[in-house]
Design brief:
The protein is an alpha/beta fold and 77 residues long. The protein has 2 helices and 5 strands. The model has no long low-confidence stretch (mean pLDDT 79).
């Protein structure tokens, strides 16, 4: 799956209208997630969404949890 298509599918899955910044990079079938979310639940849900959308890829979740962010969506770039 081309990177742009993967980005679009992920953005649609997690939403892109919030204040939380999530970056996604792909290289050699490895997807690396970076950024910050408000809760461990959001971090896990994000990783699960990527795993579901990108079968056959290895997902490395480097997203940090910062409860000060409060509730909100995700912005993927």
């Amino acid at each position: 799956m081309p990177d742009q298509q993967l980005y679009e599918r992920l953005a649609n899955a997690v939403g892109n209208d919030g204040e939380i910044d999530i970056a996604l990079s792909t290289e050699k079938r490895i997807i690396t997630l970076t950024g910050t979310v408000a809760s461990r639940g959001e971090q896990i849900a994000l990783e699960d969404a990527v795993n579901h959308l990108a079968e056959g890829f290895i997902v490395v979740n480097l997203v940090k949890v910062d409860p000060r962010l409060g509730c909100g969506g995700h912005r993927v770039h």
